[in-house]
Design a protein that fits this description.
Blueprint: H1 2-6, H2 10-27, E1 46-47, H3 52-57, E2 63-64, E3 68-72, H4 79-92, E4 97-101, H5 108-113, E5 121-124, H6 129-142, E6 147-151, H7 159-163, H8 173-192, E7 195-200, E8 202-204, E9 214-216, H9 221-225, E10 228-240, E11 243-256, E12 264-270, E13 274-275, H10 277-287, E14 292-294, E15 297-300, E16 303-307, H11 309-318, H12 320-334, H13 346-366
Parallel strand pairs: 3-7, 3-10, 4-5, 4-6, 6-7
Antiparallel strand pairs: 1-2, 8-9, 10-11, 11-12, 12-13, 14-15, 15-16
Helix pairs in contact: 6-8, 10-12
Length: 369
């Protein structure tokens, strides 16, 4: 009996083969395939967030391409900074990026400070939520854009709300808009390998006595369609004397479909600079026992590199080769791919000086006597 049950039914196999042939004829080759063929399972391509700690917490070294990502948190917590850094990293890889500025609040000067090439950045400031999502859909379908940031879901105001009067009750309009848009976008995003990041704001549920009263805007569709959801919070201030120069930031990976979720990253965001790479190297280095911390002093290989985090950060900023060496040791200890060495400019400058001297000597030799 067991042998009869386990034996394949030739009629079922023929029927399946005929169905697969019909599907491929109608929808194209590769519409349905077996997992063992290896055509479905591919390595996830990622782009760095500009934060070493967050890249490690995400489990794959950055945000995944071909997926929807949601970044949410309170005001002034670093949401836009994180997305602008991701744009800068994508541009370093040669990618094309677009910023859908529904809030009409993009600080162009700050974007430049974070390393964004504005001449290569596509910017749109749409009038309505429908227009913003149609532009996003068109850019995704083109296949020519690698990263799109929508800032923010809360600012995607439906056309009916804009054309209506103040005080009109229009329940669920934005949620329906987001649900419809994401149904259309998801397939195109995967096919074109485009990373789409939605920035979202936090609202409070009224009358919640127990549990978390916080919720995000735009309904539940984005929560389901997002492969990664990041909750970013400001946990404290960074001071230089009495002056506040930045924020201590915590990011929790609330949802992650490509690696284990619920990991956290802690880093500093400095005003006008973005994420402090050197600060992260010091924190992660001391956690991995690569950088020794004794009291307020930081040391590396028995040599002191600064008293206090600010001084140690400045020391590493002035010595990028040393910072890269420590970072690669941290990456090796955590099993993250290493970065290439930073080439010193001293040799290039010496060569330039030698070439300049040679050209001057040649010019003098050619002068008539």
């Amino acid at each position: 009996m067991d042998d009869k049950k386990s034996a394949p039914n030739p009629d079922k196999s023929k029927a399946l083969a005929a169905a697969l042939a019909q599907i491929e004829k109608q929808f194209g080759k590769g519409s349905v395939m077996r997992m063992e063929d290896g055509a479905v399972v591919e390595e996830v391509q990622v782009v760095s967030t500009g934060s070493l700690g967050l890249d490690i917490a995400l489990g794959v070294g950055g945000l995944p391409r071909g997926r929807v990502v949601e970044i949410y948190g309170p005001e002034s917590s670093g949401k836009t900074t994180l997305t602008l850094q991701t744009i800068a990293e994508m541009q370093k890889l040669g990618g094309t990026c677009a910023f859908i500025d529904a809030e009409h609040a993009l600080d162009v000067g700050y974007a430049q400070k974070l390393g964004i090439n504005l001449s290569e950045l596509l910017i749109s400031q749409p009038d309505t939520g429908e227009q913003a999502l149609e532009i996003t859909d068109a850019l995704v379908r083109s296949g020519g854009v690698d990263l799109i940031v929508v800032d923010s879901v809360a600012a995607l105001t439906p056309r009916a709300e804009i054309e209506g009067d103040m005080g009109d009750s229009l329940p669920g309009l934005q949620a329906r808009l987001m649900s419809q848009a994401l149904r259309k976008l998801t397939g195109s995003i995967n096919r074109t390998n485009t990373l789409v990041i939605f920035i979202n704001q936090i609202r409070m549920k009224i009358g919640v006595m127990f549990g978390n009263p916080e919720t995000t805007t735009g309904g539940n569709a984005l929560k389901f369609y997002a492969s990664v959801r990041l909750d970013i919070r400001r946990t404290g201030s960074i001071k230089s004397g009495d002056e506040v120069i930045g924020n201590e930031t915590k990011v929790k990976v609330v949802k992650n479909k490509i690696a284990p979720p619920f990991k956290e990253a802690h880093f500093d965001i400095l005003y006008g600079e973005g994420t402090s790479r050197e600060g992260e190297i010091l924190d992660l280095g001391s956690d991995a026992k690569i950088v020794e911390k004794s009291g307020a002093w930081y040391s590396y290989n028995g040599e002191r590199i600064g008293q206090g985090k600010d001084n140690a950060r400045t020391y590493l900023k002035e010595r990028p080769e040393l910072a890269r060496e420590i970072e690669n040791k941290v990456r090796a200890s955590l099993g993250v791919p290493l970065l290439g060495e930073i080439k010193s400019d001293s040799g290039d400058k010496a060569a330039e000086k030698a070439a300049a001297k040679a050209s001057k000597a040649a010019a003098k030799a050619e002068e008539p006597v």
